[in-house]
Amino acid sequence: MPTLAAYFDTSNASFLFIKDKKHINIFPFPYVYSESLFGNQCSEKEFCQGVLDTVLANNQAKASACDLVVSSFNNPPEFSVKPKLEVGIQDLVRDCDNYFPVVISGESHVTPNSFFMSSHQGDLAVKNYDEQSDTLENLCIYPHIIVDDISIQSEIDKKIILGIPAGLKTDNKNKILFSGGRFFQRTFNRELDYIMILDMIKKPAVYDVYIDRNNAFPLVQSMKMYDKSLDIDMEKYIESVGTFICCEGPVECLLKTSVGEDRFFEIAKDRVDVVPLKLDSPAKLHIKNSTLGSLDIHTVGGEVGLVFDTRVSKEGIYSDVKLFNVCVRQFGKSFVKDKE
Amino acid sequence: MITPIIRKITQKERCLVERVLPIEGGFSVETGTAVEPFNHLGECRFSQNKLELPKGFKPSNFKTNTRFYYYGCLLGKIGKEKIVAPFDGNMEMDSQKRYIFSENEKNYPLLAGVWGIVKSIRQNKSVLLETQVKDLLLAACSDVYTSGELVVFPNPTDILKRSYLENFAKGIKGKVIYIGHFVELDVLQKAYDMQASAVLSGSAHKDAFDFAKDNNFAFGLISGFGKIKTPESVYKFLSSISFRYVFFDGDQNILRIPVRPEDILKGEGLKPLIKQVEAGMGIQVLQDPYFGWVGTVDRICESSIFVRFGVDKNSVEVRVPNFLIIE
Prior knowledge:
The structure holds two protein chains of two kinds. By secondary structure, chain A is of the alpha/beta class. Chain A is 26% helix and 31% strand. In chain A, the strands form three sheets. Chain A has an eight-stranded mixed beta sheet, sandwiched between helices. Chain A starts with a strand and ends with a helix. Chain B has three domains: 146 residues, Phosphohistidine domain (Glucose Oxidase, domain 1), CATH 3.50.30.10; 61 residues, CATH 2.40.50; 50 residues, SH3 type barrels, CATH 2.30.30. The chains are: A alpha/beta, B mainly beta. The interface between A and B is large, with 37 and 35 residues.
């Protein structure tokens, strides 16, 4: 029987349709029900049912002839057909073995060992009546919109960071997957995604960082919870950002690629540096640093490449304008070709 | 790309509207009576204005428990400031030794406000009417229920708005005013001071909205926060129903407009909630610097669309999902 997994974020929704083991498709729907926009036409239940029916119709399937698996960031919506499995984001996050998942939606976040729920984005704007506060208030009316103003988005990100003051505690996992509405289908100002991630990673270690821009994590994870025999390769649907080397003080690196071009470089203390790197086969990276010691790792890089953070004090990037601008420039250079 | 459709104006073929007297009174209609907006349903009698005089007020010639004053007569003084009666009424001292000046009781007629049929009458206090309406969806509004005659200002410049309000000064009380694309805090405060029943505008800053919420004043934004235009179709619709009795329902985010039965389009049925975006469709853009503008889809790309505004030949790129189909 075909199976449809649906995930409802606070600002968008996504669907994973499995017709059989060979036909697996993800359908992003970058909108969500808002009382202020659709309250005169339908209820949230009717809206979600309408979206679900459209997705099924596009796949020549019917709700009655399909197993439905529903997950959501907040309370799951109701449907005419009872889902075979209904699961919240916290259970999905706790059940993940391969990655340390960090799901961010609005100003809220959920990880396997922490969560912070904020109900109203407009709180940022209290008693501050300007263009920025208007935009933040409009996010309550139009929750699906992606803010294209760097300063406003970084204000929102700053608020998210406040929910994780000591940084992520990754339980010794070094593969971190960032998912949720904050990263969904972002095609512009991607530098801000990476800056926020960098600001969350404070504990010295080497991390492989991934971004899920299609809500693949909750979809695949809920599908695996429903049918444990399913083998879906999530990496096909997520962005590999690269390797984040978080340490204190200067670091020496020797990068050995399979084509034989060895590169030696040093990153000075108190710097954020990006070395663009995207390979097909893994390169060997030898690192020497006072906090990390001497390490040999294998990396293929990613959309960004290698990210070095040698700051001794990992204080907020957003409060240091100079550092923030350095980060925008550093992350920007890794995908300058995309922009061209 | 499939995109939701917003319909700012929707119709309801069968809708119940409750008309309520401020206090118990009498009704001149019965269950099943057909009514039109200016038909009287009934009336009650009560004092419709009260003036609470501040501490330090010294009444003039107030020797008994209650005293009648004509409009314009001297009520008393606060320091050297003379206070005159703003209406015919009686002054009393309450249990907390405050002076209260109440207007003479007057008849309060209750109009139907809608084209409909009386469904039920409850305890000489309220009438339930079955009618047909059009609802204008408000993007944001204060949680207040009120009603009144709709006054639609032309979409004027900021300078004109105050003068419009002042020119309407005598008749603004109890009315629902559409004030333009954008309203500043001072204009909203003026409307509040002049006892308008409700104010509608395309947009406002948050300070104006907070003022309305703090003062429990009915205030509705059609498009959102900032300086956003009211969609042309909505403005035309409001203009076409100027001076009609309307209901501001803040709880449901709507302005409910009673219409004649013949104004309802028959056989509309259920409309789709989402559609595939196609060239030529009407789109509301939600991306700066065109936030709130309504245009037409020119062409569609993988992760964006190009939108044209009015007769402008140039189109602008709008990224997914920063737009909605508007019908």
